[in-house]
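Could someone model LQZAQKY5 with this protein?
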Amino acid sequence: MGHVSVAEHRAAVERLLADGSTETVALDRRAAGRRLAADLVAADDLPRFDSSAMDGYAVHPDPSGQCRYPVVGDVPAGAAPDFALAPGEAARVMTGARLPVGTAFVVPVELTDASPTGPAPVEVTVTTAGWTAGSTGAPAGVPPRRHVRERGEDVRAGAVVAVPGAEVTPALIALGRSAGCTTVEVRRRTRLAVVATGAELVPAATDPGAGGIHESNSDMVAALAEAAGCVVTRVEVCSDDPAQLRALLDELDADPQVDVVVTTGGVSAGAYEVVRQVCSPLPTFAFVHLAMQPGGPQGLGRYGSTPVVCLPGTPVGAFVAFHVLVRPALDRRHGVPAAGPVRAAYAGRTRHTRAGRVQFLTSVLHADGTVTAPDARHLTALAAATCLIEVPEAVDEVVAGDVVVVHPV
Ligand SMILES: Nc1nc2c(c(=O)[nH]1)N[C@H]1C(S)=C(S)[C@@H](COP(=O)(O)OP(=O)(O)OC[C@H]3O[C@@H](n4cnc5c(N)ncnc54)[C@H](O)[C@@H]3O)O[C@H]1N2
Ligand code: MOO
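Reply:
Sure, complex below.
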């Protein structure tokens, strides 16, 4: 069997999983991390009205330039003043309060003779430097509209505040909600089922006996899928019995809560390759060996109408294959833009790799921008890894100083 390129297979997985479904959800913390599928449009002006940026006094100066004003009203945040300021009048206002009509500027309470607490005074004197009798309008050093948040100065009603593909971040939640939005249209989260296969697999906390091993891929892949924005609706472990796998895949295909299935194991060349045995006779399936290490043996196709991606059983191979092949396709489904390559300077020991296959080395990206890769392919190295170094097919050695492409994991 010839080797298929990583890029070719990645594109095939992307085609198989392509889906642009969207849904409308509440614009709240549960939407964080989702990607917009439509423009987010401000429903209201932000601020909704001219409001005070300070606790203090709204002033309508009069031409005589006096600095002592009668206080004609008291406006806490949340109130709607039912009066207007005439020339020579002031009103006490709190931060965020709607300003009375006629306000020219706001003087912070610290720049007056008034007490910051207690009832509003009958009169207030502005004590700010530069305010001298005889000056007109705002005192020197107090620009017009000082400490006034103008209606709509941040966003106007009807303005697009975020476009499709934008992530719903905590800040976007604040912006959208402040601008009166209650919902967002986002890409739907993929409902994903994981099926780990293998006769040797036993659950955690169960005696594996002489030939068994503790099963780990199912929850590793489920956690990777959740980190990619999926909702994992089923996590199954299946023996090497083709009838059992067939029954399980029939059930998953019929389950409306399952959009995509990812299997692990049973795809290589041995006698008990249950995934290959069950799926390769189906005309929609293809099993290939990618020019990639680890994670070379792969399959993909549709079981019934359900897309199925078949990863190899070795935990490191399954992890790498998920990152290299499945994650990009899930990102496209979820509206996450493709990230450009990240480059780093290799600072580890010389690593000899096998030419003719893309090698992914479990690696650690350091704060100084350099990257190192422990020698082994063991799970301990994977657990310590923060990225994968991609060594191209044509390269058979990585030496200190080489600039390498890394994929954060
Ligand atoms: N003759 C050949 N043998 C193998 C080839 C090959 O080309 N020719 N490819 C090797 C490569 S590379 C890989 S990767 C594996 C892939 O094999 P399978 O996908 O069929 O996986 P299994 O045989 O089921 O398991 C491999 C390995 O991983 C352990 N495993 C499997 N599932 C789990 C799990 N859920 N949790 C923990 N560990 C798991 C399993 O016990 C095996 O040790 O094939 C090579 N062989
Ligand atoms: O492709 Mo396999 O994951 O090297 O062991």
